[in-house]
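Notes continue from the previous slide.

Worked example: a multi-chain complex. Inputs as given:
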Amino acid sequence: MSTPTRTTRLTYAVSGLLAAAAGMAAGHLVAAFVNPAASPVLAIGSTVVDATPTPVKEWAVQTLGTNDKPVLLTTVAVVTALASAGIGLLSRSRHSLANALLVVLAALAGIAALLRPASLPQDIIPAVVAGTVGVAVLSGLRLLAERIEDSAQLAARGGDQRSQPTPATVPDRGWATSRGASRGQEPESPLDHTAYAPGTPGTPARRSFLLGAAGVTVGAAAVGALGQKLGGGASTPADVTLPAPATTLPPLPTGIEGKVKGVSAFRTPTSDFYRVDTALVIPRVDVDTWKLEVDGMVDKPFSMSFKDLLAMDVIEKDITLNCVSNDVGGPYISSTRWLGVRVRDVLERAGIQSGVEQIFSESVDGMTISTPVEALTDDRDALIAIAMDGQPLPPRHGFPARLVTPGLYGFVGATKWLSKLTATTYAKDKAYWTERDWVTDAPVKTQSRIDTPMGLGTYKPGKIAVGGVAWAQAGDGISKVEVRVDDGPWREATLGPDGGTVYWRQWSWVWDATSGRHDVTVRATNGKGEVQTDKRVDPFPGGASGYHSIVVIVS
Ligand SMILES: Nc1nc2c(c(=O)[nH]1)N[C@H]1C(S)=C(S)[C@@H](COP(=O)(O)O)O[C@H]1N2
Ligand SMILES: [Mo]
């Protein structure tokens, strides 16, 4: 076989790329019917998420925020694209080897899907479809690519035909004539360094390839998009009718956000509520078949339906939830009114035996979370929540039911898409984050954040409203917030309304700012009179601490 030209190489690389894209798109569509999480891209993506070392994951959450998932999926796609382009190049001389490598790629996706927690044997199907479609598309495009090469060689041998195309050698006369004519007036394109020129027998072959490639591109895009529409996070809570709470709370007071621009809303709108989880596809749960199992070291293991759950005492509770991965000053904290059943009531039904240390909860997507048993049984009223801010939980926040444990970071007490509670010991069962060396007892640290003015912002001298939020869900709430400018004295801020000890507190302070570059720092004191620590520590393994400080330019 002759040395391939650049264009020839390109056609084979594109064939490989499109074969992989078509395979993944087909797998994605089939997965919508089998199990959306078994889509080849998502199965590999999830596997990469779980295998990512904690420091890298921390860095990703810190720097990419909620974009960490799109970035991850793009990375998986780019790596796959490079690999498949390579396979395409290889297919020029080694058909079977190239096909075999495509099958290996698909098999990797299949293995990833089968190794996902809570997977079923049929989760292999999307990968099988992806491999089959991939090999078929590669074989087809490769044949077209070969025809380009063959006709180019033919043209190279019959030199006359190149400069003087005759109707007899040009199957598509009209096209060849017009192209040939216009071509004559054009300078030679640098992209056209092939052994043939348009108007020779080579071009129809090239046109077939381009048509084929375009067809596959459009087809793959359409099939992939359809799969996304059918399987990707488009679920809405079924028409759940929320039960009336056994005890209702007075409405939450109005926050100060209307008066102090830039301060976080006292009650976070659900659409703004932070989201942190490992799910690449939001689990879709059918409330009619949903079950909560309670087992382990209990007297009477049982399982209950969603209806059974709603038949229990439902209470309202205002709780601030935050992520252990939140850095000082970070955004992963939100507050709202939750509606749910006390975990204690559910566990009492089963009868917790002595020796139980933790409640090991599981979610429908295979997440496991350990919560110290006291936190779920004491009078803080940890909830199996079914609603937030007056609406059934949206799928992204755990529909139909999730844990919310006041005073603990989300990773040890806020299991979304809850499916099981097991009374056990720490020696016996290791949760997802425990295996990754995060702490098991994780009370929220007393913290405060400046929401306004903006760090590194430039403001005019004079009165500047400084404000933000402070929280101490594990420290009897907030009793005081103080602000300091540069090395000046701590000034007491005005606290916003009281939403309870496990709810954050807004604060504000008026600063008479003078020209210059200033550091503005905040600190909170909890309900026990303890001032938050100024010791800077990273989120791993038990939550960040230290004062939040911003730089403001006044001029
Ligand atoms: N099933 C499941 N539940 C989960 C998680 C998860 O990855 N999977 N992440 C936890 C973490 S780390 C946090 S901080 C909270 C975040 O809840 P939110 O996304 O509703 O704000 O959910 C917790 N529950
Ligand atoms: Mo978290």
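Summary box: The pocket of MTE (ligand 1) is lined by residues 273-279, 321, 323, 363, 365, 367, 397, 410-411, 414-417 (CB under 6 Å). The two ends are 72 Å apart (CA to CA).
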